[in-house]
Design goal:
single chain, about 270 residues, mainly beta, Porin, 13-stranded antiparallel beta sheet, about 15% helix, Acyl_CoA_thio, hydrolase, Acyl-CoA thioesterase
Length: about 270
Amino acid sequence: MTASTTSWISKLLRFDRVDADGDVFRIREPRRGAVERLFGGLIAAQSLAAAGATVDAGKLPQSLHAYFVRGGRYDADVEFRVERTRDGRAFATRRVTAVQDGAVILEMIASFHQPEPGVDWQPGRTPALNFDAAVTKTNVLDFGDLFELRTRPDDHSEFAVPPFWIRTREPVEDDPLVCACTLTYMSDLGPVPAALPPNVPLSADLGFAASLDHSIWFHRAFRPDAWHRYEVRSVNHNDSRGLAVGSLYDGAGSLVASVSQEALWRI
């Protein structure tokens, strides 16, 4: 990517600072076709970007924990209010409240860490889906223009059902915060369908579903335009809530990020 090129994710992260010295940012969400409800991964990515805009450049995203409080809508302003909870030598902590039409739609705590030398270890894992065994998926909800996906040959659904391989269709700037925001966006594509009990078949008319909360731990460097394997599994379902945990691996098998999400499923 040339320096003069701006990626689609960077365009989605462009803020207006409400006041020159403050930590309040505003974005007007562009409409995506006929979709009305804001995608949770987008708001989480923008919240992380707002938090990162108040942190020293040397500190990189370490983790985030977000609650989707209520649904938002496209073609309307969202305000991101950042609270500087802590600034330490190695870590910085931020709280972000995303507000639309005077109502809170997301709350996030994000942590940033200055890279340090240390042991680099992860457990070995056999891939749940090898790249050569995966097939191209051409229509995934409303995100096929942003991401390429390769899924199991028997996945004929309109959803992104893990395990799958994913990458951005276009290059993304080599900026750790932008890359982490891209990972945050794409990490919300798989957990909701994965949160169903294993014996419940997925279909478009199954019932009402929504993300309740979402957590990410950023482990290693991430290149959004390179193929990554996303594995997500259901670990619990009760009270109409399903809990899914996931792992994102690069092509060499390195664990790039860990994810957890609880989803509401009213079947």
